Amino acid sequence: MKFIKLPLIFSALTLIILTNCTKDKKVESETTAVTTSKNGKVYEVNTVTSKIEWKGYKIVKSENAGHIGNISMKSGEVTVNNGKLESGKFVADMTTLTSEDLKNDPENLAKLNGHLKSADFFDVEKYPTTTYEITKVSEAPAGSDYNTILDGNLTIKGITKPVQFNANVSMEGETIKIATQPKDISREQFGIVFQMPAANGLIKDEMTLQIVANASAKK
């Protein structure tokens, strides 16, 4: 006799019900006022070495199932005053979104990338960029694994929400390096509510984003 794991089934059913309830719910933008100054030196983001790294997850079939990938930067600028990050804005090119774990499987890579770029997910034809504008820069508490706290406005699919990142920021000559802590973001808050059939493995609401940026003094 096979025993069914009821807690797992109830979790799946709950997720399906919540997803159906949010499909028709309009998502509103929320913004945080920009309090940073821009008196410092301007640094231009290197679009070759800068990116947003992402992770998406499935549940039910396997807690470890999911995909990882990256999105290239289209543009960006930060300002540095007295050797410290002062302000900044990053613009990611959503048309470059790709999965890294399927790079050796061209057929499934093309299918996944195409689906993620479709209206089911990021709708890159309509919303070709994702942006993060820093609204406040603070020092992290002593003893933290990160030296900086970034408050900012994250815009995905035309919807803006305040998001805070822990980050490590360092100056190396005329280059500033910024690497945020991976951050779980609710995709539903940005109007991404697509769900797979339960038999294929339900998709978690959380997606993980990490900003990795290098910028050089603008000439």
TrEMBL record:
Gene3D superfamilies: Lipid/polyisoprenoid-binding, YceI-like (2.40.128.110). It comes from Halpernia frigidisoli. Pfam families: YceI. Residues 42-216 form the Lipid/polyisoprenoid-binding YceI-like domain. This is Polyisoprenoid-binding protein YceI. SMART domains: YceI.
